[in-house]
Specification:
five-stranded antiparallel sheet; 12 strands; about 10% strand; alpha+beta; single chain; about 425 residues
Length: about 425
Amino acid sequence: MAQEQGDYRILHEAALRDYLAGLPDLKALLGGEQASWSITEVGDGNLNLVFIVKGGRGGIAVKQALPYVRLVGESWPLPLSRAYYEYLALSKQAQLAPGLVPALLHHNEALALTVMELLEPHIIMRKGLVAATQYPRFVDDISTFMARTLFFTSDLALSAAEKKQGIAAFAGNHALCKITEDLIFTDPYRIAEQNRWTAPYLDGLAASLRDDMDLHVAISRLKLQFMASPEALIHGDLHTGSIMVTESQTRVIDPEFAFYGPMGFDVGAVLANLLMAYFAAAGHERSPGERAAFEGWLLETIEQVWSEFARKFLDLWRAGAVGDAYPVSLFAGERGAARLEAERQAYMQRLFTDTIGFAAAKTIRRIFGLAHNIDFELIEDPRRRAVSEARAVRLARAMMVEAAAFRTIAEVTGAARKLRDWMPELSN
């Protein structure tokens, strides 16, 4: 995929207005005179520009990649091609999980620009969780999204040739994979310039991570799995900041980190962010027990996300998988069917273990790495924030080093519940 770098320019308000006015379909969708369109830059992520454009008839969302990491600046260059991979991933996800990603309206590869439907009144799920909002549709929607996008891009559903073509289509997205490999699987466990944490309270805990060889082995195994296990097309950044919600709708956004990797990375990312919301909840309380019902909903949601994902994934497999893995001809008759079903259960248990490990890695990186979660960051009292974070890290270390000891999702939520009121020793 060739990127026409010479045609790239950053579109600020005036240039974006002119560009959109030159696209008849989008001009008609917005309606009214272009001079009257409101254009607001709302990007609060780490990488890109995001605009909301509204006209007399309707609105759109416009996303343009910058040639560097926005969070850091021009000292950290980043290829514009990530916008193409995001567009490619959204197109595939729309096909496999219709209605669960924003509709694509326009893409310009040279400008690294994509226009999508404007999601209103949706908000970023992480913001809703900080406000203790419950989302009754979330479990069904996110489990459907993960089951369908992961199953139908795996060897269980594809021929070997189709799968390899899929891997090849996303293989060029290695720059964003490198960000994950460094920021999630390496930097939090060593001295790195961009690491930060709630100092001085977590100074001792940060030092202990750098000295924990059992943890270093566990995270290195996960890193190898991330690099060497192209199981399915994964979103690659499926946290609660990449999900927009209302009480009745869920939309997954921002798959620019997409590539063929381990399925457990996506599922683990969702569970990690729900667990972090759980541990952060006490830090947001204005009175003891104020968020008890919300905390209970979070733990129930964590359990249901895994159980519903596993149920739907297995249902797709049982419905007649046509991929080259586990060919049906090898499992004929009643005895073969029984043996294949036992293998399906073993497969899901292995996937669960992977998921638990990746969830732990995502948790630790959000507390000691470069980009943090507002779940914790918006806890104003730093000591109180550090207590919530230390609880999350204690569970994460157990989940990573002793992942196989967690046989069920209920054991994970049970461990979280036990740590809800544990008081860590802070460095100050």
